[in-house]
Amino acid sequence: MNRAFWQLNPISTGILGVFLAASAANAQMTSVDELSDPTPSFSLDQVTSVSQLSDVQPTDWAFQALQSLVERYGCIAGYPDGTYRGNNFMTRYEFAAGVNACLDQIVSLIGGGDTIDPEDLATIRRLQEEFAAELAALRGRVDRLESRTAELEANQFSTTTQLRGEASFSVSSLFGDEKAGGGDLDRNPVLNDRIRLFFNTSFSGRDRLITRLDALNVVPFGPDTTGTFMTRTAFDEGDDNNVRLGKLMYSVPLIEGSDGGHHHRQGHASAPGRVSLVVDAKGGEFAGNFVNFNDYFAEEMTGAISRFGRFNPIYYQGFEGTGLSVNVRAGDAITLSAGYLAPEANDPNPKNGLFNGRYAAIAQVAVFPSDTIRFGLNYSRAYYPSGSVLLSGATGSQLANRPFGNSVATSADHFGFQTSIDIASRLTLAGWAGLSLAHAESDFVGVEEGDDATIFNWALTLALPDLGKDGAMGGLIVGQPPRVLDNDGGRDEDDASWHIEAQYRYPINDRISINPGFFVVLNPENDNDNEALWVTSIRTIFRF
């Protein structure tokens, strides 16, 4: 505004107060979206006396101007709490909206036959001319927004559902002298792909229904290819790009509460609330339902290259199962979680079903001493019928997954510790340790019911978000995959494997990223006689 405006008489200065009040009457609008809202969510009261404004005093420099405008023009409005807030800042658009509201009041007075001071009329005309451009621009933007809103409403996919998609193409290859345990290693590069379509639905704004369709064509780098589970990549199950229902889950808050600030960065599956329930009909996983502490590497499309590097194998118990999970926020520093998943819940045959087949029950406490430190303790009880024993979640050695063989029904008590520390704004150190106590539930050749086995694993991860560019990430993972330390019903593993992984994800734009990486397994199958196995991968990730 030019200097001449500030040199007007007290009544003219008071008109500025009218504009401020009128701007307040428009709820201190800060965007055109709010200006176009036809149903404001506030209520302001007309002021008939300046004494009604609790924060306006006779000693204020604009007191006389406000008093005159109240008595002469009646276009001053106050906030519901009885304040005027005359020192609040406002934008030029807010000022323009205030001018428009005040002019409407003046026109109403003129139409009613009331008289207006000529000087005030001259001031109004000058203000109309000075802010004509802003008012015209504002009206134009509102008109365009109304037009776009009408078009979106006419063509929207759904009033309750949003569609989101991810696609990944990866060129992967194996390197090494031979398979773990011997045999020729196929080193030909392969092209893998995976596509996921998410239909995210909310019926109340607080609940969430996730329906995910998957299509993938991936060569598993598992025992048939490399002689070990240790070389498996983060997503390597499925072929022929057949479309299937990958996930169907519903989460809802049972007891409302503030959203809090301690959910992991990849997005928590449960709906915000002090007590929330997650119902998994298909594709359930504890790592998505709970805080898993390995935020930057947990997601199978954009996280770790390897399966082992995603998170503590304790979260693979009941993987892709059916069941329930509950999260309880006990204050701002503690979250309690419990869940149950059964992978073959839809199969009524013996050794299957919701309670008669493979299952996992888990309990976890997550503690947040500060905004930069997080740690958790968890326990899982799991059961694996004969023929479907996979105790370490297809990570680690074959013996660590089936310490008594696949023909012996096995139960296990899994114990886990996880932590995550933000060392700096762009440096996060995380890690875990996992201990499993396996129990033979039946007799077999060389195995007696009641035999026990002890299995251990650990890892450290280092994430460097925004390395070189916003949205980029560098990552390192070092650890020892699951290893059998002691086994009553079979052999122990005296040697230890080492898992070393590195990757860098670079965003070309907001929707496309390139993600080269590799990992090497030293002493695969926890055997020093086995040569190192290398897995390299270059992923291209599309998100829409």
In words, what does this structure look like?
The protein is of the alpha+beta class and 544 residues long. The protein has helices spanning 10-25, 32-35, 63-72, 92-111, 118-130, 132-155, 223-226, 286-289, 353-356, 398-401; strands at residues 45-46, 77-78, 161-175, 190-201, 208-217, 244-255, 275-284, 321-329, 334-342, 359-367, 373-384, 410-424, 427-440, 452-465, 473-487, 498-507, 512-522, 533-543. The strands form 2 sheets. Strands 3-4-5-6-7-8-9-10-11-12-13-14-15-16-17-18 form a 16-stranded antiparallel β-barrel. Strands 1-2 form a two-stranded antiparallel sheet. Residues 1-44 and 260-268 have low confidence and may be disordered.
Main traits of this protein?
Porin, alpha+beta, two-stranded antiparallel ribbon, 16-stranded antiparallel barrel, 544 residues, 35% strand, single chain, disordered N terminus
CATH superfamily of the largest domain: Porin
CATH domain fold name of the largest domain: Porin
* Low-confidence segments: 1-44, 260-268
- What is the chains' assembly state? single chain
The portion of residues forming beta strands comes to 35-45%
Category by helix and strand content: alpha+beta
Overall residue-averaged pLDDT value: 84
Overall body shape: elongated
Terminus-to-terminus distance:
44 Å
Strand order of the largest sheet: 3-4-5-6-7-8-9-10-11-12-13-14-15-16-17-18
